[in-house]
Amino acid sequence: MKIIETIDKMQTEAEKIRLSGRRIGLVPTMGFLHEGHLSLIRNARESSDTVITSIFVNPTQFGPGEDYEDYPRDPERDIRMAEAAGSDIIFHPSAKEMYPEGYQTFVTVEKLTKVLCGLSRPQHFRGVTTVVIKLFNATKPHLAIFGQKDAQQALVIRRMVNDLNLDIEIKISPIIREPDGLAMSSRNTYLDATQRKNATVLYRSLILARQLIESGERSARRISDELVKIIAQTDGAEIDYVSMVDTAKLEPVQTLSGEILIAEAVRFGKTRLIDNIILTV
Ligand code: PAF
User: Contact 90/53 with Cβ under 8 angstroms?
Assistant: First the structure.
């Protein structure tokens, strides 16, 4: 397996792979890999000839006071795990390599980034779209795979790829959960034992929403009241948002019909967790 640390070398290697007629699949990650990332790598393995996993904790997507410095990092373990899951190349640039002195160009998707996570993280998606396009330019993929756990991110990236006519197929892979339902996330490592136990309320509330809809409830307000109630009753849980939106524009729905994204963000102490479910009503 190759480990490449500079954009120049990555571009040369990607060009060689393209010229040999092989299909490149990219799995962008911020490292500290877990089973969720490995499922993306396996997914890329099935639909491409060369799999590149990028490991880069992207400073521009963290706001002031967020966890950029504390974000868990273990590149050696990541490299071993990525290789075992079927990755051929690791692209692991430094922050200086990606954002050298004088850097000042950003890519912004406008409306989709102003809602849900965008309300409490106003600069986040600008950082994500910027780094993703830079990763695309470095690795020249035919295909890139993202996780459904970051549902808004996936939509924002699809929007950017469509709007800028990027010739890259975007695939979204399902959420991978712990046995008790908690969505896998590198940030779960921040939780202490009590918070970890209580954090299952995110998934439990989404299941409750599904049950309410299955039993005929169509009022977004009544469903979200129920969700807010069980989350608010959970020790240490602080709701950032619980939202029911359409999956195209992420606009709030009042009466559920069609494809609905139920998304939530909940804080446990300094840890902000997100989860979601998509249902067709
Ligand atoms: O989903 C993530 O881990 C990050 O937002 C991404 C897409 C790798 C960009 O830094």
Answer: yes
Measured in Å, residue 54 CA sits from the centre of ligand 1 at: 9
- Tens of pLDDT, residue by residue over 1-52, are 999 999 999 999 999 999 999 999 999 999 999 999 999 999 999 999 999 9
Pocket test for ligand 1, best of 38, 55, 58 (most atoms within 8 A of CB): 58
Nearest CA to ligand 1 atom 8: 29
- Measuring CA to CA, which residue among 49, 107, 106, 55 is closest to residue 82? 55
CB within 6 Å of ligand 1 — which residues? 28-30, 58, 61, 128, 131-132, 150, 153
* C-alpha to C-alpha distance for 51 and 28, rounded to whole angstroms: 11
Q: Using an 8 Å Cβ cutoff, are 31 and 74 in contact?
A: yes
Which pLDDT value is given to residue 177? 98
Distance 29 CA to ligand 1 centre (A): 5
What the chain holds in terms of domains, given with CATH numbers, is 2-173 (3.40.50.620), 186-274 (3.30.1300.10)
Which of 91, 153, 158, 276 to mutate to test ligand 1, by most ligand atoms within 8 A of the CB atom? 153
pLDDT in tens, 237-249: 999 999 999 999 9
Q: In what order do the strands lie in the sheet with 50-55?
A: 2-4, 89-91, 50-55, 24-29, 143-147, 169-173
The Cα 121–Cα 109 span in angstroms is 14
Angle between the 35-47 and 75-85 helix axes, to the nearest 10 degrees? 40
